[in-house]
Specification:
The protein is α/β, with parallel strands linked by helices. Helices cover 56% and strands 13% of the residues. 31% of the residues are buried. InterPro entries: Asparaginase/glutaminase_AS1 (IPR020827), Depp_CoAkinase (IPR001977), P-loop_NTPase (IPR027417).
Amino acid sequence: MYLIGLTGGIASGKSTVARRLVEHGAIHLDADQLARRVVEPGTTCLEEIVAAFGEEVRKPDGTLDRQRLGDLVFHDDDARARLNAIVHPAVRELSAKLIAKAEAEDPQAVVVYDVPLLVEAQVDHPFDLVVVTSAPKRAQVKRLVEERGLDPIQAEARVDAQVSDEERRAVADVVIDTGGTIAHTMSQADALWVDIDRARRAKHA
């Protein structure tokens, strides 16, 4: 198996790169989706969150009220740290199981694990390669406004709340510049796949 950690700031083109690698044959795991799975009704994780933050973070239908929880932790570093201490280990455990399953089904598999908080959560799976998507702040803000409907002040706050591009680049083996056209991003992803395929073959030779 060949395991790639994919990370980058909000609206920095991670999903575009992930989609392109999947088109080439990679298996895609999305940490955000896994984070939703570990807090579904009936999970230990959800019960721990309710115990830590109160019954008001649970909707009447039993699901997590993500909006309310987000409001509680967004400007409170301690609260966010408490939440992360509950969610991150559960996501790590689930992702490790899914990575192991992919390898058992196909020892030659290329798995792209898309982890927005790879740096912040200190995700330390044994990655063969860490890929960082990088776009200028103005491009990220513009995308959040145009594609996700945020107002510019909200959008800027979201970008500023994350670790810096420099910190992400520090852990990168490969940086994909997503500040230009989609075609430019795609061509970099295609070139990356050629390198991945070569490295995978060498690893299994």
